Amino acid sequence: MSRSLTILLAGLMALTSVVSAQEEHHPQISIAHPGVKRLNADMALMLELATKKEQPRQDWKDIIEAFAFGVDFEKPLRADLLSGLVPSPMIVHIPYTEKGDDLLANIDTLMGTPIPEKGAPNLYQTDKNIVPGWVKLTPAPRWAVVGVSQKVPNQKLIGQIVKKAISPEALIGQILEGDASLGVRLHNATHDTESIAKRRKSFEAIRTLQLDALQQRPKESTTEFGLRVGLARIYLNELERLLIESDVARSRTWLNKTGPTSNSEFDVTAIDGTGFAKSMSLFADQQDAFASVESDPKSALSLRLNHPIDELRTASAEALVKLIRADVANRLEDSSVKLTDAQKAASQKLFDGAAQIVLDGIRGGHLNGFLESVPVDDTFSTYGCTVVPGAGKLPEVLALIAESGEGNEADLNAHKVGDVSIHRVKLRKGFLTLFDFIFGAGAEAWLGTSDHRIWFATGPGSLDRLKAAIEGLGEPGKAEHAISVSAQLLPWVQRSRRAVEGLPKPTDAKDQEARREVLLRLTHAVEALKPTDDDITFVLDVNDGKMVGKTTVNTGLLRLVGKELAFFAEHNLR
């Protein structure tokens, strides 16, 4: 569930495709923001980090206030998604200035002339030929309720919802609890078996629409496309559980002037008796085999993992391995692959053996490991370990490396530290392009095995770091978090830019443009991030049936956002 915040936000967009009428069992989804004044202040704060020029700040202020003409800048806004209609309408609650005429003029510009509804004071219908919708002005307190639906049969219902809408302020307070800069809240009001079944049935429309939208790309093989579809299915499975089996799922983000920094928090409670609730119950006090391992103070990436794996994710992993195996087999049969039949067979056995070890670890029901990655010159010294029930099978799998292709090497039992046998492996350039991209072409790697653990290391000085970690490992203890990640972004961005620059230049015009765009964004990041403020952290915990994830971003990433905002203003807002 480390991606719950992303899944929740993405799910709000996916819900625009739910098929059926809006009923009590459908998820209630609301988004809130403190208002235009706060938005201007937050934008100005990030822009000031990136540039001393006043023009970008003025450009953004002008465009925001033009779109918000007639809106009371001091008050918050709220939007509700009606998840049971197609296409999903949005009901927006907007605070307006004293008379409301300015807001109606703004709506006239955006949606067509608001026409007063006979017999209904302060209720208007917009031009059906431009943007069909409804507007209600509530004089005390001053709130405008705007509902939009492109589908003709829904327009009457939207009018009824707008007409009956009440003040949004109470729910806004819950969504923005703690004075958040942005908040999202999902609530399933009904928890009975029938309601859950109805939500699940409705979700099938989302699944079908999302999967049908995927199309095979011109340069994509059938197995690559199948792998992409499989990943989409896994994402949709996670989304389904979150949207259907949550009681309340909420995310909030703050932009803090001190620093400045930003922090986000999501929290989720599951409906009792669901698979989601069962998954959360697995987060008991699991012993951490690596509780004694301290983070390297020079590390650019430090990961701690002590996370249970439930039936859903086990099934997802098994399906993914099956799809990857099909893609590996397809690549080995490609005529451009210069391998003998014996080398192809060994390569397939190598993948199958490694995949089986991975599956053994996942089927064990608990992922426990650590990773440290320290910048060294233009690359990284990376080392770590994971608990794997089938770790003892690894040496016989590694023995296949030398048979899998010319230039591939495997030196078994090259070193010994305690009960850990350390094996040296080296893959020739181009044998595994992802490995080349991340660690460098022809990089050497070290893999250590004991009965239930696999140690790994690659990069300059990583063998010494690995040996020290093995020797210093203490007794298991209580994990501080289920997941903990801290990273320094600048070294990774610099490494990515060098890697992209080192790739062959594409000949296709679209590919060339894409490469220029990627390099531009990476260059912006290199310029914005500083070694003293490029850090980001994430932790995940489950306590008393509630899952809580917290992310903290330092000034560097906010400076990067400001730089992108200034760049956009210069090229699009003048």
Report on the architecture of this protein:
By secondary structure, this protein is an alpha+beta fold. The chain has a domain at 75-175. Helices cover 42% and strands 25% of the residues. It has helices spanning 4-14, 36-50, 55-67, 101-111, 152-164, 169-175, 193-212, 222-245, 275-281, 311-332, 341-363, 394-398, 433-439, 462-472, 489-502, 509-528, 555-572; strands spanning 28-33, 77-82, 90-95, 115-116, 123-125, 133-138, 143-148, 182-187, 246-256, 261-270, 287-288, 301-308, 366-376, 379-387, 409-417, 420-426, 444-449, 453-458, 477-478, 483-488, 535-543, 546-553. It has a 20-stranded antiparallel beta sheet, sandwiched between helices. Strand 17 (444-449) and strand 18 (453-458) form a beta hairpin. Helix 1 (4-14) packs across helix 8 (222-245), helix 8 (222-245) packs antiparallel against helix 10 (311-332) and helix 10 (311-332) packs antiparallel against helix 11. The longest helix has 24 residues, at 222-245. It is globular. The protein starts with a helix and ends with a helix. The model is unreliable at 1-21 (pLDDT under 50).
